[in-house]
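Moderator note: this is an archived Q&A kept for reference. The question asked for a predicted structure of one protein chain; the sequence and the answer are reproduced below.
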Amino acid sequence: MAHIKKQEMKWMKIRLIARYIAGCLLTAPAATALAFHEGSEDPFFDPLPVVLTVSRLPQPMQDTPGAISVIDSELIAATGYRDIARLLRLVPGMQVAQERGNDQWVSYHGLGSDFPNQMQVLIDGRSVYSPYFYGGADWGALGIDIDDIDRIEVVRGSDSAAYGSNAFLGVVNIITKHTAAEVGNTASMTLGNQGVADTRARIVTHDGPLGLRITASHQQDDGSANLKDGRRINTLNLRSDIRLGNIDELTLIGGFSDGQRGTGYEGTLFNGSEPRSSYHQNSHLHTRWQHTPSPDEEWSLSWYHNNESARESWSVDSYRNLDGTLGAYPGLLAMLLAAPRLLVDVDQDRDSQRDNIELQHRLRTSNALQLVWGLEWRRDELKAQALFSDNHTRSQQEWRLFGNAEWRMAPQWLWNVGTMVERIEGDKLRLAPRLFLNWQPDSATTFKAGYSRAWRQPSLFEREADVRIVHPVYGLLQQRQQGNPDLEPQRIDAFELGFMRLLPKTGGSLDVRLFQEHIHDYIVRDALPPMLTSADNTLADPNLYQRILGGTRWINSRDTIRLTGIEYQLRIRPWADGNIIFNHTLIRASAADPAVEATVAPYSASLTWMQHFGAWQSTLSVLRMGPSEAGTGYAGSERFKVDAYTTLDLSLTRNLRLGNQLVEFRLSGINLLGSHQELVHRPVERLPEYSGSKVANPIEPQFYLSVRARF
């Protein structure tokens, strides 16, 4: 009872804070408008960025249907971050964590599984959510160099009306720099603790209508001190833009990435997750033709091909780590020691391919109306002995028809209407609509209200998984995961209120999102019943290993999950050459299953201060994440929580001119407040050695010095 009262008091405090913030937001427009009129009759407003992602239409941020955050190249460079996923910590509502040195867990509003797959991830419009990565995005192997990024547009909220199934909770669109916007070449080197040793070279050249960029990079570190989680990753990227006259342009983008990353943990039962190296080799080719007969019309046709491979193997030993794991269960330990010793090779090799063709037409028919429509076809192919015991290749085709319209009904009223008609092989036709109304009482203020419905189709792995441990003599020992061909797609109904205000006196803006999201048929992992006895199984108890190790399958939760909250971003320039960005999110998750509810952190916040001092520049970010049970692996009904934590990141830059060369020196540090845990790996947390306060996967401070020269 005391625990329940404590929880009620906590949520009462959160509701009071939310009401206070909402009250401030409701009165802020009037107060700000009054100050605006008193200060100047014709003040200067910095225009908000024009974004492309939300509706596939070029729109100022105040005109979009829903909330969007932009991480521009200036902010990307100022942070000094080596990983793209870490940048997303600076976006309201994003829940980002590291399980180990080279693995990033990225979701919007939590609710992620082992490999979060509720959010579409694009690079220049090319989808990189991966069938070989269990339907999620492999953030450690995206195959893109961080210096090539022009900006990252993050749609905060469902965007299936524009991008289909995997845009269930949002979209991250990474947009690379156009070669026409770049000149010169760069080379850089980064060295730091934990074995950090990165190198990079970029060449940009132009020849008449042709622009060409080649980027080669090597990323290396040893990861955490007590884990096998180092990485060695090589990446080569090429982008070519060529003007074919006044109205046509052809873009060719290609890339190749290969490397190895450490994974696994010591001490797991039967050596079920042996420390080992995982090797990947990914490549992509993307072509896009753009035909722009006038500023009010554009046709585009694109095709891309992704190819991904992973190689990973180890051996399971039925005698390994029994004493440490089962020492408290002498009867069970004796049974296992009495059984024959079994050695089984585990093959985690995976290969996938994706082909995608898209036609899009954008048209402005008048000053009041602009439209976009398009068609898309996709085919995924996945072969993985580890995931599908029959080793047959799985494939899936998808067809989409989409349309979005922006209609200015009156000077102060703007409608955004869109829908996606989607057909995915094995499922019926699905419709994902969206309707938003924006009220703009003056040029600095926008109120938004809208509704959207979206679907997330089960991945090939969720539908057809059959992960088994099979001994060549004794047969089936364990069925680790089982697919469910009867899975229904997840559905979300999202209601949203937004407020955006330009702040002329501080040269900034305020962006607020109030949301209520109802999720139906949420896909969760559930325990498998004991496997059936096989006629040729010679073990005394053929179900023994299955009972100890367990197994899971994917099912639809019949409970409706509700996410209610507020998130906002405040950007200001309070003094010369200084920028401050503050993000804050409060979420209340409601679900019948406490374990699902607890994967959502109730709050998160970040404060970033960027400052120029002549040739010096500094960036400081304080990041706060609330407690959650987000993590990987399955541990039945056992619960493991990550405590709330605060981290501090710092980057200090000095530009010097040495002769004719401009050289940049940057000193960066992340997690400067000390070691902490951000994510749990549940099967490891069950081990006796971590039953106290010891953390299995601590994230430690990291320092590195970068030197970059421009030629």
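Archived answer notes: Residues 1-46, 532-540 have pLDDT under 50 and may be disordered.
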